[in-house]
Amino acid sequence: MKRIGKQTISFDSPPTILETASIVGPKEAQGPLAKYFDQCLEDEFWGEKTWEKAESKIIKETVNTVISKSGIAASDIDYCFAGDLLNQCISSSFGLRELNIPFFGVFGACSTFVESLCLASVFLDGKAASNVLCATSSHFCSAEKQFRFPLELGNQRPPTSQWTVTGSGAAIVSASGKGPYITAITPGKIVDMGIKDANNMGAAMAPAALDTLITHLQDLDRKPSYYDMIISGDLGYIGKEIVTELAETKGYNIKNNYEDCGVIIFDKEKQDTHSGGSGCACIGTTFSGYFFKQLRNRKLNRILLIATGALTNATTSQQGESIPGIAHAIAIEN
Amino acid sequence: MEFIQSIDWMGILKCFIVGGIICVIGQILIDKTKLTPARILVVFVTTGAILGGLGIYKYLIDFAGAGATVPLLGFGANLAKGAIQEVQTSGLLGAFVGGVKASAGGIAAAVFFGYLASLIAKPKIKKQ
């Protein structure tokens, strides 16, 4: 592997995304992508007593699903990178505590899934591992409780707010395989433009997404049209519009091949999610469920996945801090 | 029949309109400002206490009854009213005692019924 340009790493023997799996909650199951997910839950608790326990169960079962789908024995998986939104990443560590695979807890807020894929790729191309598991999860109810207000309070969500996706996405990445390949990664910088509204995460993260996108294209000397699709994680309607407009002012036209997972996972007309979806599982499930299958079926051959994260918590919001954003990108090609 | 005839329809209409307008103000604050619901709550209670303390809010209560007492503004006004009354009967300490004393029924009922509800209900996800 080698560094190219300012931030990008390209791989000599690009790792293969061997298999993915996704489990989603009931609201996502009513959305337009429902048929692509491995399992759709009927209620948010999934038989557990708390939402946190339910989230742990979701990531655990998603990981079990991806392992059994891949045909690789759990003992042949060398490392696991996983993270989520709850304090100390408890969904991942509690959900995966019986997994018996060396575990790295990753926190990149909603960019966690792609951050994990970045780290896994470096491990694989560096010959430190043969198979690596990446997983992430989020849950609407536990996220509302942690970042905004407990649901019992029953307060209203303002129009700019996004809906945290309930679900989990997991992938097994291997050093050898027939693709789709992770050909390059562009880890992003922390970008803070001073947005303070915890109910407008899309706008807070959009500048980070744009920064990573442009850096990636410049580092590799590519045009946006190189990719069949450029996909951001969870900017939602407001953030997507900001990125599209800002990219144009910088001389990059991404109007025709840019989409956001937070926009496509829910139906704007039928499902009132205000500004779209968000959360670790937004890109986690949309990539694992939908885009991976599109790559496999050769309907898409080159995609750039840019996962965005808002690096904030309830305490910093209450103390009036702004929201630092981050975005990590990976190029996936057949 | 007598019961229906005894209903003060005009009073109900006034109550409905005033209570509704107070709620509309709250809705506008949620939709059009960055204020969190918790801050809007504090603004309502404080405004009620000021209007109550200045003796203005009682006219609204006379006009609209429960339409003015049930929303948070009424709670604030009640706090102020209780504090003022207690100062008159038992001196300056009443400013600290009176407000809570006057609204003790509401506070205790909220805790009691909240507890009862928690025994039989489980929190659910929002619809939107």
* Rounded Rg of chain A: 18 Å
**Terminal residue distance of chain A:** 18 Å
Corresponding CATH architecture of the largest domain in chain A: 3-Layer(aba) Sandwich
* Count of separate DSSP helical elements of chain A: 10
Question: How many discrete domains of chain A?
Answer: 2
Mean of all residue-level pLDDT scores of chain B: 92
Q: What's the shape of chain B?
A: globular
Most extensive interface between two protein chains, with residue counts: A-B, 20 and 12 residues
Helix content of chain A: 25-40%
What profile does the largest beta sheet of chain A have?
A: 7 strands, mixed
Residue-averaged pLDDT of chain A, rounded? Answer: 95
Total domain count of chain B:
1
Describe this structure in words.
The complex is a heterodimer of chains A (about 325) and B (about 130). Chain A has helices at about 25-30, 50-70, 90-95, 110-125, 140-145, 200-220, 235-250, 260-265, 280-295, 315-320; strands spanning about 1-5, 10, 15-25, 40, 80-85, 105, 130-140, 165, 165-175, 180-185, 230, 260, 275-280, 300-310, 325-334. Chain A has about 325 residues and is α/β, with parallel strands linked by helices. Chain A folds into two domains: about 1-175, 3-Layer(aba) Sandwich (Peroxisomal Thiolase, Chain A, domain 1); about 180-334, Peroxisomal Thiolase, Chain A, domain 1 (3-Layer(aba) Sandwich), CATH 3.40.47.40. Chain A has a seven-stranded mixed beta sheet with strand order 1-2-10-15-14-11-12, sandwiched between helices. A six-stranded mixed beta sheet of chain A has the order 4-3-9-7-5-6, with helices on both faces. In chain A, strands 8-13 form a two-stranded parallel sheet. Chain A starts with a strand and ends with a strand. The model of chain A has no long low-confidence stretch (mean pLDDT about 95). Chain B is mainly α. Chain B has one domain. Helix content of chain B is about 80%, strand content about 0%. Chain B has helices at about 1-5, 10-30, 35-55, 55-65, 65-70, 70-90, 95-100, 105-120. The interface of A and B includes residues 44, 149, 152, 156 and 272 of A.
